[in-house]
């Protein structure tokens, strides 16, 4: 639907609905409450508020109708708030009862046709994605009085309605990302050989003894060694499949946990026995 005429098209559609379905008082105007009309017996619809629909605000981009490769942003979705008022000459004996009857007739039509049927839709709205729904709204007497106080005319009995959803299309577009049409045969190969830690030599000795840790595929990686949770070797570059280090000279006799880590790829725990 057009961004410039959609709101007006909804008002015209409501007017068409009332003028066709009401059994009497078939004149419907779209004026401010204090604007005059040549008809003394009429229903007036006054659009007093337009509000963005909070539930449809964050919709995703959609495929543009009639295309296969163009996306459009979500439309601006609006709720329209109307004040329906009946106007009729006052009767000398029954007062404004005629206006009350006319208002009741208009309420009946909106109740029975809560979704505006297609024959009454303005041409701008034909084919729209969303239906035009008429829902009774709520305004307390203070809110109604505040609306009427902005006009020069006297207060008249009115009924508020909310009409949704009115969608205003945006002109922005973007191409749809191309889809993957074919997947080739993938070959997955490891770019390296995983190191392996195999031996600790010796497994026992005196405090301060030299030890050798050996394995396979150490070259190019780094060694990390800890003894009883304390670091002995930190990020030592390796150029061969073995490396040496000395144990602390202050170790007490007994078994001590030696943990060897190669570049955080593999980790092995050995037990070294310190003997007197």
Report on this model:
The chain is 14% helix and 36% strand. It has 276 residues and is α+β, with helices and mostly antiparallel strands. The protein has 2 domains: 170 residues, STM4215-like (2-Layer Sandwich); 79 residues, Sandwich (Immunoglobulin-like), CATH 2.60.40. A 5-stranded mixed β-sheet has the order 1-2-5-7-6. Strands 10-16-15-12-13 form a 5-stranded mixed β-sheet, with no helix packed on it. Strands 3-4-8 form a 3-stranded antiparallel β-sheet, with no helix packed on it. It is elongated, with a radius of gyration of 42 Å. The relative contact order is 0.14. The mean pLDDT is 88. This is Pvc16 N-terminal domain-containing protein.
Number of domains: 2
* Arithmetic mean of pLDDT: 88
- The low-confidence parts are none
Task: Choose one word for the global shape.
Answer: elongated
Number of strands: 16
Strand order of the largest sheet: 1-2-5-7-6
**Helix share of residues?**
10-25%
Q: Number of helical segments? A: 3
Per CATH, the class of the largest domain reads Alpha Beta
Radius of gyration (CA) equals 42 Å
Structural class: alpha+beta
Order of helices and strands: HEEEEEHEHEEEEEEEEEE
**Known CATH architecture of the largest domain:** 2-Layer Sandwich
The biggest beta sheet reads: 5 strands, mixed
What proportion of the residues form beta strands (DSSP E)? 35-45%
The CATH topology of the largest domain: STM4215-like
Gap from first CA to last CA = 94 Å
